[in-house]
Specification:
Layout: H1 17-36, E1 40-41, E2 47-49, H2 55-61, E3 67-69, E4 75-78, H3 83-93, E5 101-110, E6 122-131, H4 136-153, E7 158-164, H5 165-175, H6 179-190, H7 194-202, H8 208-216, E8 221-222, H9 224-231, H10 238-256, E9 263-266, E10 279-285, E11 291-297, E12 311-317, H11 318-327, E13 338-342, H12 348-359, E14 364-367, H13 375-381, E15 386-390, E16 396-400
Parallel strand pairs: 1-5, 7-9, 13-14, 13-15
Antiparallel strand pairs: 2-4, 3-4, 5-6, 6-12, 7-10, 8-9, 10-11, 11-12, 15-16
Helix pairs in contact: 1-4, 4-10, 6-7
């Protein structure tokens, strides 16, 4: 039996040198793009109080949290989500900032996801949160920012599915189901299990119009124009029709901005986080078939922390985007060149001066710690482009590899 001293806990992984370099470059690209778009970086603590999270959130996701008790007896959790801690931060420390307030982050989240085998328990997320704008312009901005972020990385063959959670929330509010029954219906919708959904809906004592809508929603996904035509045939009430108009407006603006080829719609999209209140969206790649980003509007979340403030945002799952990029053969831009400087100790001053100059141009520069003549194998394994030899007389010889 292998000792646990050398094993990793389930759902986490070591990142070796090349993986760290690859991920760091991806994160730098994302961070740079976010900041160029006017978002300012913040960071929340890894530990949060259990009580930070609402009863609704805890009832659904509390069993997936990593919990611990501090020396004062307080129940703590490892951060399971980035949006909620940042909402707390804004409500308690940033009320007087200039709004719209645009924030970004890159940090880890920890959850015990067990629905699928091989699910990780530690995720790296890069995301943005936009506070203080009620209009659909904010929804459009964050969706286009999500699209542009993936394009910035060189990702191809991805789609952003856009949903409108207001419709299902209106329906569920009107029929007032027990929590267990509601969860079954939502799960069937999320999985597009139409047989189970029909059985659950038929067992309810609800009006025919509501039953028709519940059964039809998860089938309404795909091409924007086609699906929007189909949804208008449903017996929607005034509030639901207004929700459809919102989604249609967002999609039309995105298309007018030139990003129509990246979007589809899905009226059966059921957000996995209970704080969403309107437009939601998820990003998928052809290679993975899994969600690489998700986001949406959460206008009521801030009220939990004593501040009324509309908000929307998204998070990119860096682990999955990294995997998708590798599967697509996308290469992150490398440094200009990798140099190794070989010099005797008496010429270290010159060697360090030269290395500083070369690094200013974005190059990787090392000063050899090996005996002269032993650097060949090292250069081969480290993919060194050129070796610069400095002799006792200050002469430099450059050898390309």
């Amino acid at each position: 039996m292998v000792s646990k001293k050398v094993l990793l806990p389930e759902g986490v992984q070591d990142l070796l040198i090349d993986d760290c370099i690859y991920r760091r470059k991806i994160e730098n690209q994302l961070s740079s793009y976010f900041m160029k778009s006017g978002y300012m970086e913040v960071s929340s603590p890894t530990l949060e109080y259990y009580d930070l999270f609402s009863y609704e959130y805890l009832s659904k996701y509390g069993d997936k949290m990593f919990k611990l008790i501090d020396t004062n007896g307080s129940l703590m959790v490892l951060r399971p989500d980035c949006t909620i801690p940042i909402a707390r931060m804004v409500a308690t420390k940033m009320k007087d900032f200039i709004y719209p307030l645009k924030l970004c982050y890159i940090q880890n989240v920890f959850r015990m996801d067990q629905e699928q085998s091989g699910r990780k328990r530690e995720y790296r997320q890069a995301g943005v949160e936009l506070f203080g704008v009620e209009s659909l312009n904010a929804d459009v901005e964050v969706i286009i920012t999500a699209i542009e972020s993936l394009l910035e990385l060189g990702l191809k063959d991805f789609q952003i599915e856009i949903g409108q959670i207001k419709i299902i929330k209106h329906l569920l509010r009107n029929i007032n189901l027990p929590e267990e029954k509601e969860e079954k219906i939502l799960l069937a919708m999320a999985n597009k299990n139409l047989i189970l959904l029909e059985r659950e809906v038929d067992a309810l004592e609800i009006d025919e119009a509501t039953a028709i809508i519940l059964k039809k929603l998860p089938t309404l996904f795909g091409d924007v124009d086609k699906v929007l035509e189909e949804v208008e045939l449903l017996p929607l009430n005034k509030d639901m029709k207004a929700a459809v108009v919102e989604l249609k407006s967002v999609c039309n603006i995105i298309k007018e901005c030139g990003y129509g080829s990246f979007i589809t719609v899905d009226f059966g999209m059921v957000a996995h986080l209970g704080y969403y209140t309107g437009i939601t969206f998820k990003g998928y790649t052809k290679e993975l078939g899994a969600v690489v980003l998700s986001g949406g509007r959460y206008n009521k979340l801030m009220e939990t922390y004593g501040m009324e403030c509309p908000a929307t945002g998204f998070a990119i799952i860096v682990n999955k985007v990294t995997k998708a990029l590798k599967l697509q053969g996308c290469q992150v831009k490398k440094a200009e060149k990798h140099y190794l400087i070989v010099a005797p100790q008496s010429k270290y001053k010159e060697a360090f001066q030269l290395s500083a100059e070369l690094r200013k141009s974005g190059n990787i520069v090392e000063i050899s710690l090996l005996d002269k003549g032993e650097e060949g194998d090292y250069c081969s394994r480290r993919n060194v482009d050129e070796v610069i030899y400095i002799d006792h007389e200050d002469k430099k010889l450059v050898e390309a590899l």
